[in-house]
Amino acid sequence: MRAQFVLSEIGVGLRRNLTMTFAVVISVALSLALFGGSLLMRDQVSQMKGYWYDKVNVSIYLCNKNEAETSGGASCAKGAVTAEQKKAIEAELDKMDLVEKVTYESADEAYKHYKEQFGDTPLAASITPDQMQESFRVKLKDPEKYKVITTAFAGRDGVQSVQDQRSVLDNLFGLLDVLNKAALGVMLIMLVVALLLIVNTVRVSAFSRRRETGIMRLVGASSFYIQMPFIMEAAFAGLIGAVVACGMLVTGQYFVIDHGVALKDKLELINFIGWDSVVTKLPLVLAIGLLMPALAAFVALRKYLKV
Amino acid sequence: MIRFDNVSKSYPKQSRPALRDVSLEITKGEFVFLVGSSGSGKSTFLRLLLREERASHGQVHVLGKDLARLSNWKVPQMRRQLGTVFQDFRLLPNKTVAQNVAFAQEVIGKPRGEIRKAVPQVLDLVGLGGKEERMPGELSGGEQQRVAIARAFVNRPALLIADEPTGNLDPQTSVGIMKLLDRINRTGTTVIMATHDQQIVDQMRKRVIELEQGRLVRDQSRGVYGYQH
């Protein structure tokens, strides 16, 4: 089989239905860009999870006098936490395998942190160290298992509440997850559209070249040889689409995160994904862009090109 | 070379079979006319030879192979040993004469050097020497059919199948085509030709196989078109 002969056949085929080829390129590009985008989104979420989960603790807030007298109500009804209770809690935490580190924060320290955060606002001025709660900040080896701490200490005498800071973040991640799934859903639809377009393009292409393929058949060209130009055509259009998709991902990273909109500078709190993350997705996008249309063409030819 | 053993062929949705219980044998180097009115089963006969269809019953052997047992992917290999010529020439209009002939070699992967040698040779043989670069549209019907024959013969097939090759040509041109087919036959190639052309069959005096409503009604060596009693 001669490469030049095959290549010229592909060129003729692609030019002959240029509009269809264009449609295939665009739909493949959009679906793959969505696909790559959602992969990057997943990377971003897991990176944020890693970053934030590392920093968050489970906090066990202890009852102070103030809580016992006022709003603490049920959980602090038996009065402020005693030194013995504190010791018991600390000893128990030390014994747990799950716990990596326990830090005790006194009411004064809590007051200092609070002051740092809110400064000289009127609200901060009205707070006294008495009102602040003592707490144990517990760092877990496996942050997923915070429930163990909750069940062990919530409702115990002297404990006002057990709070997992993760639950705040989980709402955010939940939202990102929904967005990601929506992107994947749109991608799937685009993918189906792209595949249908490819099947249709192949059908038109096979029909417009039925004279050639008929003669090929008669002189004994193998079915592989006859189908090859059609499959290569689809693969080629898909590859162009994939290259466009890669371009969109790279431009997205460049303009939205690094420069241009520059989220990286505006949202310093968020640790954004880097170029390595983007670059590692490109080969996958290219491979899918090449192979998927080829496969679709192959399947379509079974039906529309009798050999 | 070719053997039909009790071959029947019926198409779905058609009550009457296209071929009924046909048995015959064609040996190497023969020239055979296949005659019969439209719908008599000639085309089906040729399609079975080319393995475009499979027999419903019976066995078709071509070039020593049982076509029913030939797997699909081996069919192209088998077809390379057959040449085919049709009434409508089936040339590629956007390729030159030489490219049309070369196409038959390119698609089976012949090396370029071999193609460059074989194409002018076969064009000389069919009497089109010097017209290599013409387009099919610039040629007369007879010349176009010669290109088609050149394409069918360029790979030196053992068997040449011609489906009414003179159907679109005037009598004089037809004689030229027949002379060409005769010459190809003399190189040892078996020729099977379906035709309605009474004059040609009567002149050539070759073996005649007649089909009628799918049945083999006559198989006569040195026969003529019509019945001879």
Can you walk through the features of this model?
The complex is a heterodimer of chains A (307) and B (229). The mean pLDDT of chain A is 80. Chain A has helices at residues 3-16, 18-55, 65-69, 83-95, 107-118, 122-125, 146-153, 166-208, 210-218, 223-258, 263-266, 275-304; strands spanning 58-62, 99-105, 135-140, 159-164. With 307 residues, chain A is α+β, with helices and mostly antiparallel strands. Chain A is elongated, with a radius of gyration of 31 Å. With 229 residues, chain B is α/β, with parallel strands linked by helices. Chain B is built from seven helices and ten strands. Chain B has helices at 42-49, 75-79, 97-106, 112-125, 141-153, 171-186, 198-204; strands spanning 2-9, 19-26, 31-35, 57-62, 65-66, 82-86, 159-163, 190-194, 207-212, 215-220. In chain B, the strands form two sheets. Chain B has a six-stranded mixed sheet with strand order 6-7-8-3-9-10, sandwiched between helices. Chain B has a four-stranded antiparallel sheet with strand order 2-1-4-5, covered by helices on one side. In chain B, helix 3 packs parallel to helix 5, helix 4 (112-125) packs across helix 5 and helix 5 (141-153) packs parallel to helix 6. The model of chain B has no long low-confidence stretch (mean pLDDT 92).
**Class derived from helix and strand content of chain A:** alpha+beta
Radius of gyration of chain B: 18 Å
Query: What's the average pLDDT of chain B?
Result: 92
| Continuous helix count of chain A | 12
Chain pair with largest interface:
A-B, 18 and 24 residues
Helix share bin of chain A:
over 70%
Query: What is the tally of beta strands of chain B?
Result: 10
* Major β-sheet profile of chain B: 6 strands, mixed
